[in-house]
Every structure is written in C-alpha cells, then in structure tokens.
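Standup, Tuesday
Yesterday: got the pipeline producing structure tokens again.
Today: sanity-check two examples.
Blockers: none.

Example 1:
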Amino acid sequence: MDALAQLLYPYSVEKFLEHHWGKRAIAIAAKEQRQFDALFSWHTLNHLLNFHEFHYPDLRLALAGQVLDERENEKLLHWLQQGATLIIDRVHQWVPAIAAFAAAMRHELGYATQVNAYCSFPGQQGFACHYDTHEVFILQIDGCKEWRVLTDTFKYPLAQQKSSTLTPPESLPYLTCVLHPGDVLYIPRGHWHDAIALDEPSLHLTLGIHVKTGIDWLEWLIEQCCQQEDWRQSLPLRIAPDAIQDSIHHLSQRLRQIVDQPDLGLDYERYLDSVGRPVAKYSLPQQPGFKIFPEGQQTRFGSQPFQRVHISPLPNGEGYKVMTMGKEVSLAGLPLPVIETLFNQTQFTGADVLSWLPEFDWEIEIAPLLSRLVMEGILMVIAD
C-alpha cells in the first residue's frame, strides 16, 4: 500500500485500518515536512483561476454556513475579501500531479476518488457543521486551519442522505486539531465536522473516497437482471388468488440461484475496475495509427499506470482475455507470463517483446500486436 502509506506516514497503515477507517477520525502531523507542496500551491490555484473558465457548481463560494448563489461567482474577489471560502471541485481533472495521486489511491483502495480544493480566509467559517457521505482525507497545503470532529448520529449515510436534513449532535467534539502544512486529517463518512482558518489564509485539498455499499451491489445486480427476460416479464394480474405470491416465490428461487453463483463477487469487482478512467486517456498521434514506432524496435512502451488488470483463459483454451479500463482484449497464442509482463511492467521496448517471444516474427506478429494495443489505448508510446 505505497500511496496510502505515504499519505499516512509516520502512522502505520495497519493501525489506521484497524482503529480508524470507517470508525474514528485521526489527525497526523507531518512534523514540519511540507509533503504536499508538489501537489498544489497558491501559484497553481491562481493559474487555474486565471487560465481556466469554471462554472457553478464546479466553482462556488461559501460564507457563514451557506453556499452563495451562482450569480455571486461574478463578484469573486469581493466575496473573498469578505472572508468567503472558495471551492473548486475535481481539481484532479486540471492538475496532472493531483491526477496521478488520485489515480494511485483509487488503484490501491479500489474505489473512485475525487479531489477538491478549498481556499479559506481568517475570521469566517465557510460551512456549518455537517457530515460527508464519503470517506475524506484533508491534506493541508498552506496556512493553518482548526478542525472539530463530532461523532456520527446516522450510521453510514448514502449519497442521497445529506446532513442538511438532520441536526448536529450536541456533544463535544471527540477530536479538535489544528492542521499545519503537510498535516493530514481523516474523517469517516457520517462524522460531523466543521473548520475555520486561523490567523492566515488556508489552502487545503480534500481527497474523497467513494466507497461502494451493499446497496450499490444490489443496484448493479438489478442491472444484470434487466438483461434477462424472466425479470422483465410482467407480474400476473391479481385476479387469480395467490398469483402474485406464486410469481414472487418463483423469482425468489431464481434470485437465490443468481446470488449463489461462485464468481458473482469477482464479476462485481471486474465491473468496478471497468468504470475507472486512466490518468492519461489520449496519446496522439499514435492512437490514430501514426508514428507508433518512431525508434523502430527500440521504441519504448508502457501500460497505463494505476489500472487493475484481469486476465482469464479464453473458452477455447487457445489464449487469454484481458480486461482493463473497461476494455476487453482477446490475445490468442501468447503465453501467460508474457501477457502479465505486457500489462504490468512500467516500460519496455519492442526489442524486449521480441526477446520474450523468440518464435514470433517482428513484422508479421509483434509489431501488429503492439500497434493494436496502442490504438486501443491500453499501451502508451513513451516519448523521450
């Protein structure tokens, strides 16, 4: 768990998972090591604001516990001078370093991630006490911010079960801390919290982990059932006695057969992996089929980083099926160790592949194979 270990250092991953993940907030001091400076800064924030056009709600302002109307975005500087908090959603879509960090965490933890940026000024609180419906890591970039975390009053809220409909607990916070640059705060979903910048402007990132629940799995299962006609069939008219009961009993038996399938969990895992987006989706001009081998056999290739790969035998036993990034590729005639290397090695050259497959012809077999994987967006040509 390299990415998580680096984020939590010097606190151990084992202790975190046992005592805190989904249970209790924890603040981890960086001991004056500004470990997040390479991810974000005031310079990066200014670059985003000056050279990109953001629209509400991707960019919004909050003041005194309220999110300001979208029309107030036109008076951005005025409201910042009044102490409003500036929020930019999904900054991982705009900043390559954050994109790589978010992808590494997604690959390691197995669930979708999102990174938002928050800019706060002293003396005003942006948001009232609330909880989030996803797991949250706070990464303090600059300045100092005081946080209070209170216990959960509604266990494991789903995305639609917002805190705005509930009342915060009256108990004292079980964690109060001040984050300095490089510090990390973890807050489980459902735990109430609020924060305020102290005597200087504060800049932090929030890493949201959007874990799946049993409800999500059931919704996926319903989608699978939608492809089967016995589930799409109308229930019987209620003219005959017990008609509905008999039909539901039949469907219950059918559902039991479905959930008892030994590979059902694996199928769901493959689905989760299929909806993950690569860090770099496009590589031109190679993907349209041009300049795939600028250095001939010495051209370097690499698989998309932070992607989960599933390899399974083809039904005819003459090759393997590879599933990654929502794509499915059949590779016949290749030995399994070579396929595993192709999809898991950081970088390799065409000459390396030729050495792994000495019985194969470069022009007839290897070059077309690499071209196909590049044009599918699975392999990338690594530029000098």
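Example 2:
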Amino acid sequence: MTGVRIRSGRKALVGRCRVPGDKSIAHRALLLGALAEGTTLVHPFPGGADVRATLEAIRTLGVEATWEQEVVRVRGAGLSWAPPRPVRIDCANSGTTMRLGAGVLAGQPQPVTLDGDASLRRRPMERVAVPLRAMGARVETASGYPPLQVAGGRLRAVDWTLSVASAQVKSAVLLAGLRAEGTTRVREPLPTRDHTERLLAWMGVPVTRHADGAALSGGQGLHGADIPLPGDPSSAAFLVVAALLVPGSTLVLQDIGLNPTRTGALAILTRMGASIRVENAREVAGEPWGDIEVRAGALSATAIGAAEVPAAIDELPVLTVAAAFADGETRISGAAELRVKESDRLAGLEQLRGLGVPIETSGDGLVIGGCRDRMLSPGRVWTGGDHRMAMAFAVAGLRTPGGLELDDAQCVDVSFPGFFRLLEELGAVVEPV
C-alpha cells in the first residue's frame, strides 16, 4: 500500500506486544562486530531499511555477515581490517550508517564513498568530517553534504568538544579512536545516547565516562559477543502515546530498552500526567530493559527545553501530537535539529493547524495549544517520506473521526516494519487509500 487512512474507532487499544529491536544498538553492533575478533550475534534483528543499510555496508566492505530469521551473524575482521579496493556504499536513508561508517573507515587507507538517497543528501555532514580530519583522516564532502569520500591511515587521538549534541558524531569520533594513537576524548554540551560506550565495554574495550563525555585508548581489540536487542524505545513511544489518547486503552510493551539517555519521552509524558509504569526491570548485555504498562488518561501541557531534547529527539513529533490533546499550552524549544532530520519535522508538524490544532513554529521549536477533548478534522497530510512523521500522524489519526490520510505508509519500514498491522491488531481502524 502507498497511503492509509486512520480513524478513531469504538475500540480501545488493548493487549501485550513487542516492537522491533533497537535500531540504534543494531547499527553499532554490526559495525563493532565487523571490527571485532571472532563472531558477533545480533538479535532479534529489527529488519528495517536503516539497519539493512548498515548490514549491506559491512558486506560491501568485505565483512562476512549472514541474516537468518531474526539473527545476524557477523564474522569480525579485526581492527587491522581494510577493504581490499575502493568501494562505494549506498547508505539509503540512514544518517547513522553514513556518520558512524565514516568513523569506522577513517583509519584505513582505501578511499570509500558513502552516498545515499535524496533525503540523506540534504543532511549536513561537516559536523562529522571536521573532527575526523583533525584526527588525520581525509574526508571530502559535497559542499558540506553527501556524498562523503573517506580515506585515512595513521590517526592521532583528539580531545574534541562537540558544538552540537550529537550521538552520531560522538560515536564516529570514538570509533575512529579505536585505531588512533593515544586517548581520544569527546566532550558534549548535553548528554546524548550512550549505546556506543556501553557496547564498546561489552565487547572488551574500556571506556572512561565523564560528566561531559567519554574517552578511550586506541589500539585495543574488540571481542565478538552475543548482543540481544531490547525493543526500540523510540518505536515504543508511538504506541505509548496512542494508548494514552484512545479512551479505555491499556497496553503492555514487553522487553523495551530503558537506557536513561533514551527515556526522555517517557519522563516528559509522566510529567504531563501519563499513567506509565515500568515492570520487570533488568539489565541485559550492558543495557537496562523492562516492560512498560500504559493506560489512557488526561494529559496536561508542559515545557520541553533544550536540555531535554537529546534524550527525546526522535520522539518529539509524537510528543507534539500528545500536546495537541493535553490541556493548556505546550512549548518546545532548543529543537533546531528537527529541521535537518529525514525531513524538516518542524515544518511538517505545522500541518496540525489544518486539522484544527493551534500551533506555531519557530526556528527551533513549537507552541501547541492543547485540549483534552479535542477531535481532529479529517484531512490528508504529507509525511515527507519520514518514518517518524508518518507514525506521529498515524497516532493523531486515532483522534480523527472522519479519518486522517497519510500519503506514504511504506516509509515506516525504515524503523518499524509492521507498524500499521500492529495498530490494527490492537484495535485501531486502518484502511488503504
């Protein structure tokens, strides 16, 4: 199907379910597995287009990686590995593949070109190229944008301060630091997701954690490992908000990743009055896991500032939808990064105005006038081919009696294959158009 219509029905969303494995961890597990000695198992592999891009990238570079059922098996090539010849890698729509891949490739001599689709070619890449050049790599961009050509060799460690909080840039520098002489340190203005640091430690490379970042010493070998993936908390957030907004709903999301650098959306929703409870909390492969129980209920407006944005960056579109049904005025600021995601997400969210939501955008944020009893006007929205925008508007459709049409349903396969089917199983009304 190309487009879908989602509308409010008489059914509450009820049940227990799982979401795809965490794609942020999956990207990193594949890349670190390629650099490790021995075999790395990554499971359950989420299978979305983004992580498939990273899987194909390491295969293109000559690393043996097989995918059977839900398990990817990577036979590591070690830190001394380099592709045998110049190659070109298609990163598709995955900025993580491109930026982290550049860090992996910075320490090897062969020129490798990293390219992607039209959307990825609009995303800024100098922020990762600059620190890698400072380490001694040769990185060329097209006026600051993809494609990137990366070739390296002998790298030197750096003490680098990020100008913008970015887990992808931090990770790229740390990955390059594995092959650098000396200790590489990355300082960040705000805490960002730390899956790279946790995985490095799980695979045998100690990482020194500081209040403002992380550091590691170069030349340490990685060991292949078994890496089970929790459910992706960013994917789970769309179902959490859906359950909050549909009266009578009760959902239990099982085996969700609860890394504190990824649970910002849950903290914000709880502050807004959401009934969210964590059960069966535990640690698996260096990451906190748990089950999330969420019940429908009234929400109140809040303010989301720059300090909270990094831990909720992927969930801000659906938090904006939640704010439309929360009593009062919600303000989001310090979120300029949404302008340079798979689409300009701030501009895309302005479409809520045409559905009856008072909303204003600025260069780095939004002001949303909310009402708990609001029902949206029927309409059609443009997703920009952006998976998170499509899922956020799908949630909005659950409060649209006349139905909300999305122009592109297939783009959700980037991160959440089967999203619309799961919504139907839980009680939503989803119709192809």
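Quick observation on example 2: The mean pLDDT is 96. Residues 387 and 411 are 5 Å apart (CA to CA).
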